[in-house]
Amino acid sequence: MTLAEKAGQMTQHSWGFGSDEVARKEAATGMLGSVLNAPSLEERNRVQKLALESRLGVPLIFGRDVIHGYKTIFPISLGLAASFEPQLAERTARAAAREAAEVGIDWTFAPMVDVTRDPRWGRVAESFGEDPCLTSAMGAAMVRGFQGSPGDAERIAACAKHFAGYGATESGKEYNTTWIPEPLLRDLYLPPFRACVEAGVMTMMTGFNDLNGIPASGNAFLLRKILKGEWDFSGFVVSDWASMAEMIKHGLCEDDADVAKVSAKAGVDLEMATRTYAKHLPQLVEAGVVPVAVLDDAVRRILRVKHELGLFDEPYRKTAATSVAVCAEHLALAREAAQRSVVLLKNEGALLPLRKELRSLAVLGPLADAPLEQLGSWSYDGAVEAAVTPLAALRARLGADVKLEYVAALPDCRSGDASGIQAAVDAAARSEIALLFVGEPANLSGECRSRAFLELPGIQAELVMRVAATGTPVVLIIMAGRPLTIGAVCAQARAVLYNWQTGTMAGPALADILFGDVAPSGKLPISFPRTVGQVPVYYAHKNTGRPPKQDRPQIPTGTPLDPVDFDASYVDVEVTPEFPFGFGLSYAKFEYGRVQVTPARVRQGETVRVQAELRNTGATAGVEVVQLYVRDRVGSVTRPVRELKGFQRVALAAGQSKTVQLELPTAALAFTDADLQERVEPGKFEIFVGGDSRAPLGAELELV
Ligand code: GLC
Question: What is the C-alpha to C-alpha distance for residues 338 and 448, in angstroms, rounded to an integer?
Answer without folding.
Answer: 25
